[in-house]
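Fold this complex.
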Amino acid sequence: MKVTDGVYAYPWTNFMENNCNTYVLQGDGLILVDPGLKRYVPDTLEAMKKDGLNPDDIKLVLCTHGHPDHIDGVAHFNSGSVQMTMHEDEQKFLDEIGKEFFRMFGLSEPTFKPDFFCKEGENELQGIKLKIIHSPGHSPGSVCIYWAEKETLITGDVVFSGSIGRTDFPGGSGQVLKQSIENISGIEAAYLLPGHNEIVEGKDQIKSNFDFIKRSFFSFM
Ligand SMILES: [Zn+2]
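Structure:
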């Protein structure tokens, strides 16, 4: 579904199983953010076609972090013509304890590696100026992605509508996540696209969502 010009969302709505929301950013080629579980990637590609997007135009898969429900589907694109990127700290995490998650999910460990690491600050990806904001706490190399021109903020599992990412996984920290949330809460966004659950739309709603999160969670973190 189209969120705004150049930004598409494929939210996961089945509560019987955990998978992430997938987003598509339209630049020179398409950037697929968080492909989710590999077995559901074909469904996402079908949904893209209905929106007039050609899956063959996907040139880059950008992962907010390395949990299996976000990156397992990278394996679908392991053909060589699609690049993959995430934060360097998340690759380190995957090389160490992060890979254990895949076994816990009954999945095989990822064999793919990023073609390059996205770096903190401005990145020009597929002709789009995206700001990558390193936002650890849910996982060490989590990133948020801000497309200023579209007032779009993709938050991965840092914040959701009315909630925050878990910090009880290995590599997680409540104190660190709190700082990451503080860091992104002032960003001017009209669309907040989280890794799970519903999108938050509207500047006032996004501000209220951050206010709610700070009020509800910060004293426990
Ligand atoms: Zn996660």
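Residues 2-220 form a domain with the Metallo-beta-lactamase; Chain A fold (CATH 3.60.15.10).
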